[in-house]
Each structure stands twice: as structure tokens, then as C-alpha cells.
Amino acid sequence: MPVTIDARGLACPQPVIMAKKAIEENEQITILVDNDMAVENIRRLAVKMACGFSVTEKEGGVRDIALVRTGATSQTPVDSEAIAADMSCAVVVGKETGPLVVVLSDNHMGRGDDVLGDILIRSFVHTLLQLKPLPDTVICYNSGVKLVVKDSAVLDDLQQLAKDGVDILVCGTCVNYFEIGDQLAAGHISNMYDIAETMAGAGRLLRP
Description:
Layout: E1 3-6, H1 14-25, E2 28-33, H2 36-48, E3 51-57, E4 63-69, H3 80-87, E5 90-93, E6 100-104, H4 114-128, E7 137-140, H5 155-163, E8 167-171, H6 172-178, E9 188-190, H7 192-200, E10 204-207
Parallel strand pairs: 1-2, 6-7, 6-10, 7-8, 8-9
Antiparallel strand pairs: 2-4, 3-4, 5-10
Helix pairs in contact: 1-2
């Protein structure tokens, strides 16, 4: 009997993350969603993971999605290129091998509506936890340092990244400029030399 997951009402990227974790552990799953974006994200997941995909429309706008493993599943949960394709990030490739460095220069994602930008940055930072391997370093500068303060909406995710071994560099000049030194709750204060050196040595540089 397939495992059933209820992802109704959840924003991107939660439905696809839940679906991926479940299909890695089960031959067949059913996931309930209520928006077209979730359907398309899970459809792409099915292709990447060699799964059969079918969707059934239910009452009230609910979609009943069935995933069935038909081949070897990929062991790469979500990579930086997938995020770039789905969330309009810039991926700068440096050396053929080297650390993955994520640069957060704002507490919103993209230009335009700040409310939407806030939603997007929450989704982006949460998705970083699904990367395999995880980023080596996350750099926060300019308004991005506001993401590591005590009342930040992404603080839990950043703290988890730090616990998992991700080095979080926080620009000291920026912290002083915004006068938030007493509010920091993740990462450690760094300087522009270390930040520039880390960015220069990156194999991949990911900027949302």
C-alpha cells in the first residue's frame, strides 16, 4: 500500500522535498497538493529519480500525485544547478573542483516586491539544507547579515546548516553599519579579506 503524504497548503519547496524523502524510502507514494507549481516540481522530480508519475484531479483543487519507482533512484537530493533553474539564481563556476560557496547579500531574494522576496529567501535558505553535499560556506554581507539575527525567519535553517558543518561568514563592517552586533544568533563575524579569499577560492559560487 503506498505511503500517503499531505502537502496541501505548503509553499515551495516543501512538497517536492517531502516527496523526495518519501520516494527514497518507499517504492510507491501518493502525495496530495493543491497548486500547479507543486505538481510541476514533483513532475520534474519524477524524471530525475526515474519514477512513474500520474496525477488525478480531486474536488476542491486537490491533486492526487502517484510516484512509483521504475529504476535506480538518484542519490543527489537537490543540487545547486537545480535551484538555479527553478529559482533564478546565478551560479558562477570557478575551478573544476573546489568548495561550494553561497553568497547572501540581501535579506530578500530578487528585485521587485519585498513580500515576495521575503518568501523566496525563506524557501531558498530552507532548500540549502537539502543539498548533497551541503555548501561549504555561506557568506552574509550588506543586508544579508539581517538573516542571522535573533528574529530572522530563516534563523533555524541557518543554525542547522552551522550544526551540519557549514561555515557561515558574517561581514563585520555590515553588522556595525546596521548596529545589530548584539542580535547575531548564527555564524561568526568575518572580514572582507576572508570573504574575498573564500569567494576567489570557490569551485562554485551561488548567488540567489
